[in-house]
Amino acid sequence: MPTLTRQSPAKINLTLRVGPLRPDGFHEIESLVARVGLCDTVSVAPRADGQLTLECDDPAIPCDETNLALRAARLLANQTRAKNGAHISLVKRIPAGSGLGGGSSNAATALMLLNDLWQLGLAQDELAVIGAQIGSDVPLFFHSPLCIVRGRGEQIEDVNRRLEGWVALILPEIRSSTRDVYAAWDRNPSSESRTRSSELTIPKSAEALMPQLFNDLEPAALAVNPPLAEVVEQLGQLSDGPVRMTGSGAGLFRLFDNQSSANRFAATVRAALRTRVKVVPLAAE
Fold it and tell me: I need a labelling partner for 189 at 20 to 30 A (CA). Which of 170, 179, 268, 284 fits?
């Protein structure tokens, strides 16, 4: 069988409510998540020797057992008793440590591709169950472009409507530690009452949605990462509307109804902060 290739999209947390630490060591969360048009590329090719290997064009990304895509491949092979080998190639565009779910998306995409390469015939929900054993964000990539995530991330509710618009992704050269951010949140948990994702009014205008968006982890992320706090303060001076953080950071975003407005905002931020800004569409499918 020839090499199979698929795009591996990023996600943004439009909302993120965080609950207390659970007995299993995870936090109970609720999040409205949207896929966006910033994508890595994942390819899988058969190996006759039965080995599972991985390479990546970004030297900062590990290609050993700590890589979620390789871990997903090994778990799939073990649980299905697949004897086939494969070589996984990653072309990275989603920065690590940005809260955009790049590693989780790569793992989900690798599972989809290997399911086809090895002709396993597993359904999407079966792949999602395997993905949940790799990481909390992996299952959402088997669902609709807009979904509500609950539990530790394994409970997914598809939102069967389109959210159209453009996203300006502000991607400072800062890596945010999920563990440190959650530890800081535990020391000072949010007590603010938040609207549940299922109760949000999702308007046709992406810009009109922005004032409803929130992330409980923002104060904790800014507290443990002063350079990120400085970026957010500068953005507050540049932007005439709210800018939100995705996941545990350090990626930030603002929604726009049209590409030209997003491009103007991106140009302003690039010039002022000398940081990477990508304008991408909200994923429609």
Answer: 170
> Which residue, of 158, 187, 217, is where some domain finishes?
158
- Residue 90 has what pLDDT? 98
83 part of the active site: no
| 209, 203 contact by CB (below 8 A) | yes
- 0.85 exceeded by pTM: yes
Do 122 and 213 belong to one domain? no
- Annotation says 137 is catalytic: yes
- Cα torsion 173, 146, 216, 236 to 10°: value is 50
- Output the domain CATH number for residue 140: 3.30.230.10
Kindly state the DSSP code that residue 120 receives in the 8-state scheme. Answer: -
**pLDDT per residue as tens digits for the range 162-171:** 889 999 999 9
Catalytic residue among 40, 137, 216, 278: 137
Q: Which of 11, 40, 216, 278 is catalytic?
A: 11
The number of folded domains in the chain is: 2
Same domain for 185 and 120?
no
First to last CA, the chain: 27
What tokens appear for 179 in the block? 């563990």
CATH number at residue 176: 3.30.70.890
Among the candidates 127, 158, 189, a domain finishes at 158
Spatial separation of the C-alpha atoms in residues 59 and 62, rounded to whole Å: 7
Q: Would residue 54 be called left, alpha or beta, if left means φ above 0 and alpha means ψ between -120 and 50 degrees?
A: beta
Whole-angstrom CA distances from 3 to 44, 118, 147 are: 6, 12, 31
Rounded Cα distance, 132 and 152, in Å: 9
- Quote the CA–CA distance of 252 and 215 in Å, as a whole number: 11
Average pLDDT for residues 250-256, to the nearest whole number? 97
